[in-house]
Amino acid sequence: MTSHVLPTYARVDLAFERGEGAWLISTDGERYLDFTCGVAVNALGHAHPYLVAALTAQAQKAWHVSNLYRIPEGERLAERLCEASFADTVFFTNSGAEAMECAIKMARKYQSANGKPERFRIITFEGAFHGRTLATLAAGGQKKYLEGFGPPVDGFDQLPFGDLDAVKRAIGPATGAILIEPVQGEGGVRVAPLPFLRALRQLCDQHGLLLLFDEVQTGIGRTGDLFAYERTGITPDVMAIAKALGGGFPVGACLATTEASKGMTAGTHGSTFGGNPLAMAVGNAVLDVVLKPGFLDRVRHSALLLKQRLAELKDRHASVIAEVRGEGLLIGLRAVPPAGELVDELRAEKMITVAAGDNVVRLLPPLIVSEDEIAEAVARIDRACTRLARAHEFARKQGAG
Ligand SMILES: *Cc1c(COP(=O)(O)O)cnc(C)c1O
């Protein structure tokens, strides 16, 4: 397989030509059940007619205008995101990492605008993933991603996930914010305990810090709420979202309160493409669907159904599935054999899933997944587990004999 694409991904030799809802059709005509969704991006599945119509209609008007002018579609999307959340203001980006960059810059600028420029440090957590730019890599703190790229951007203090005492000890005169994913996605679908999140909010209030949530993966309905913070009973000051916001069109956003964003005045930040009319039209169309009464109820119902069925599978295949965890339709199967083996077996069953940290296989079906498709997924996972269990049993016996 020769390719002129920079080989930063260890790609599977498989390409898709088109998709329909929860299904992807490969270039060799096979139908795959898509439980990856571009890693939580295609929230409404593939080729959703409403999104296709919105994109096509906007494509015939204006694709791009400069942020030097008002963009009504963007003002409307910002208004709706604020209406549906804690936020008062929105900066649009093209990706999750850029939304996170805005959040990080905003936190630093906030402290500086308050006369405390020395408070630029941000507390982050082990297992985090915030993106691949230099600052977001430093925030994520994963050694394997930082290796060879020079000194990491300064200003991040990483602590064990869920360790409140460590947070209390780490807050110092240079601390300005705390950054966390309410559910770690790449880190292995690790759900932050609610008391921990609430305690972080308290600490932030007590010490004049901003609480930043990275909801790039959890946002826009993935966890069964529009945003994962909703079930916590607290609100962040700043929140990055992206993946599902464009349903497959690249768009991200940094949401904030008026107070948290007070340093971000004209000229302090920008993006050429961020918030262009095409992206904004699609973002509005995604919200039209996700905010329809009953849509998120159905997501919660599907999530419950899938989780119940997965719990049964776990009981039956204890030698393959160690744990089922997650929130809503962000589900992790912690595997007993290497997670990659289960991903491969599932792909052999024409079902695509994605590995995460902590030896977890992530299941990220589209939010529109049907009960029949859930049943189909469970049957495929069942068969993949059976095969994998047999293979390992065989290997063990070979080893013993
Ligand atoms: C995917 C992801 C990012 C990075 O988003 P990109 O669009 O790849 O830059 C940041 N944070 C979280 C939690 C993510 O899942």
Outline the structure in words.
The chain is built from twelve helices and 17 strands. By secondary structure, it is of the alpha/beta class. Among the domains are: 211 residues, Aspartate Aminotransferase, domain 2 (3-Layer(aba) Sandwich), CATH 3.40.640; 33 residues. A seven-stranded mixed sheet has the order 4-12-11-10-7-5-6, with helices on both faces. A four-stranded mixed sheet has the order 1-2-3-15. The longest helix is centred in the C-terminal third of the chain and has 30 residues. The protein is globular. 47% of the residues are buried. Bound molecules: pyridoxal-5'-phosphate (PLP).
Beta-strand content: 15-25%
First-last Cα distance: 39 Å
The fold-level CATH name of the domain at 70-260 and 271-290 is: Aspartate Aminotransferase, domain 2
CATH architecture of the domain at 70-260 and 271-290: 3-Layer(aba) Sandwich
Please identify which CATH superfamily of the domain at 70-260 and 271-290 we are dealing with: Type I PLP-dependent aspartate aminotransferase-like (Major domain)
Q: Enumerate the strands of the largest sheet in spatial order, edge to edge or round the barrel.
A: 4-12-11-10-7-5-6
The top-level CATH class of the domain at 70-260 and 271-290 is: Alpha Beta
Tell me the radius of gyration.
22 Å
Poorly predicted runs of 5 or more residues:
none
Ligands bound to this protein structure: pyridoxal-5'-phosphate
Number of strands: 17
- Global structural class: alpha/beta
Mean pLDDT, all residues = 97
Count of helix runs: 12
Q: Which sheet architecture does the biggest sheet show?
A: 7 strands, mixed
What is the ordering of alpha helices and beta strands? EEEHHHEHEHHEHEEEHEEEHHEEHEEEH
